Amino acid sequence: MENYGFFRVAAATPKVKVADVQFNMAEIQALVHRAEADGVSLLVFPELAVTGYTCADLFGQDLLVRAAEKAIADLAECLSGKAVTVVVGTPVRYAGRLYNCAVVLRDGRIAGIVPKVFMPTYNEFYESRWFASGTDFLGASAARMTFAGQTVTLAPNQLFTIGEMTFAIEICEDLWTPVPPSSWHAVAGAQVLVNLSASNEVIMKHLYRKDLVGNQSARTLSGYIYCSCGYGESTQDLVFAGSSMIYENGSLMAENERFSLTEGLIEADLDIQKLTVLRQKESTYRAYAPDGTSSAEYARQYVRTDLGAAAPTDFSGRLLRHVEPHPFVPGGDPAEIDRRAREITSMQVLGLATRLAHVRCKTAVIGISGGLDSTLALLVTCLAFDKLGWPRERIIGITMPGFGTTDRTYNNAIDLMHSLGITLREISIVPSVNQHFADIGQDPSVHDVTYENCQARERTQILMDVANKEDGIVIGTGDLSELALGWCTYNGDHMSMYGVNASIPKTLVKYLVKWAAEHRFDVPGNNGRSAKDILLDVVDTPISPELTPADEKGEIKQKTEDLVGPYELHDFFLYNCFRLGYAPSKIYFLACKAFLGKQGDASVFVGPEGKANVYTEEILLKWLKKFYWRFFSQQFKRSCIPDGPKVGSVTLSPRGDWRMPSDAQVALWIADLEKIGE
């Protein structure tokens, strides 16, 4: 059963009766059975869940401590033959001192005991009154002890491995310190961090706690399971609401309902492969260790325990995580969407404004086709001129109708330039291209790649020469998706003097143009059309290079997505291939989850702009193969692209984020796809 690097984890919040070990153990075992049935590989319980956290001076009672140890022995026996690993909080006595500990159990075995390091003294429960610190066992001081009838290691610095996943543990207050133990656990190799907690509620603490857990997960590039106690803990002075949550690299995967009167169980599928790749790509991740040694030397100080294979979880049937079909497109509430869109365009604008001021040019020259890419580039250029305090008349927009130009795109280009107040020029490429056809012996009736590329290169020549004449630079319009697919004419639309859209994928281009229409450019235009109306029509226009003649109705016949595939698929493929380094087979698996109602079923998928596409497994596989073939074969175009601002985490600039030989072979990736369905 293929797991694609996923690993199912859970945080359980059982009902508690303070100091009633028998009741608490029955609740714990019931939740173990539920988690096991769901295919959970790692199940975490709260701090001191066996006894209850709020026992206070009852922790000084020998009877309670012995009952807790007996309960752990019973739980170990309960887990015999089970594939789920359990981490549960309990008091542990060693050498005349009591420690607040997490006990790791798997298949009848007590695999390790991790003591809490930092003891809080700022609330009603002064833990140092009852518990000693786990600093007693740091480094070479790790102890071997007999507990619940088994010989086991007692130490804070322990790593536990299940299959391909390694986890480590810290307890409650440990996370709230300036340098949490989990930071060093992650440096030592833990991909998942576990926190057994008993965190009470006060006003606004929950939001701070979520920020704390999320930020630690992001900082350590880890999965973080935070499990806190809830209903049944003493409310003599405090309230415990069961605030449990699971994060992955800063993203919330699951969260428990707080203030519930029942037990809680939250589950999530963490992507261990993703975390591993991100750490591998982050060069500063393992830069140093707390004792001044290298991270590799520091990691050798940890006690390592192999717990065996992960549980046999069917991820293909049920995946407990959201797979975002449009990873480049901002989501969330309207205020967050607006903030993200402004941030993106501001980066484009500042990049261009800086370049314009640096070269001291008098004009900016841009080809306006009435399509998405040139429209976004024009909007960014207008905003850059506004930021510099330069008149928009110094922007020279040139529309260059050719053999495939339709009335719709032509009118949108003309009207948009009028409405934005830039200088408009119209230069037909038909005469010059026909002359060029005659010069090179091209039959104009043969609509092949030469027929198309001659037009693209003629347009670029016009732009470059006008820029020379007008003391300006050519603003590039090509986007990230086109660069990934090589869907551009080499030294044609492929070339400019500054490419403002170089790291903006097509799905985001469409999104930004629509956002700009609704928030930035609702101004009067030509023929009674506002800029907003024009921009929204550009968004609705089929994507096309318009290099072949229109159909008999004068409408666009050459539709890019019919030829290379839907851009929403290619952007999904690009993000997961580039950013996360996934194998093609995993990208296909995720695409099925993102774009099909159920894996194997055809699905009508409606994107964020309202466009509906019908996808099947066969269609997804077809375009994924096309993506890899084009991505590898077209690298030579990306090796010499113009300057342009990096906006997101994915960019293909050969000077920065993507350095790839132009003659690299795609065979390994295609072979991985060929295995699908075998």
Detailed description of the structure:
37% of the residues lie in helices and 18% in strands. The strands form five sheets. It has a seven-stranded mixed β-sheet, covered by helices on one side. A six-stranded mixed β-sheet has the order 5-4-3-2-1-14. The longest helix is centred in the middle third of the chain and has 26 residues, at 334-359. It is elongated, with a radius of gyration of 30 Å. It starts with 5 loop residues before the first strand and ends with a helix. The mean pLDDT is 92.
Summarize the structure.
It is built from 20 helices and 22 strands.
Set out the fold topology.
Layout (H helix, E strand, L loop, with lengths): L5 E8 L7 H17 L4 E3 L17 H17 L6 E10 L2 E10 L2 E7 L27 E5 L2 E5 L3 E5 L2 E7 L9 H8 L3 E6 L7 H15 L3 E6 L16 E4 L2 E5 L8 E8 H10 L13 H5 L3 E4 L27 H26 L3 E5 L4 H17 L6 E5 L7 H14 L2 E4 L3 H11 L8 H21 L2 E5 L3 H6 L12 E2 L6 H14 L11 H10 L19 H5 L2 H13 L4 H12 L7 E4 L5 E4 L1 H17 L1 H4 L28 H8 L4
Parallel strand pairs: 1-2, 2-3, 8-15, 9-10, 10-11, 16-17, 16-19, 17-18, 19-20
Antiparallel strand pairs: 1-14, 3-4, 4-5, 6-7, 8-9, 11-12, 12-13, 21-22
Helix pairs in contact: 1-2, 7-8, 8-13, 9-14, 10-11, 13-14, 16-17, 16-18, 17-18
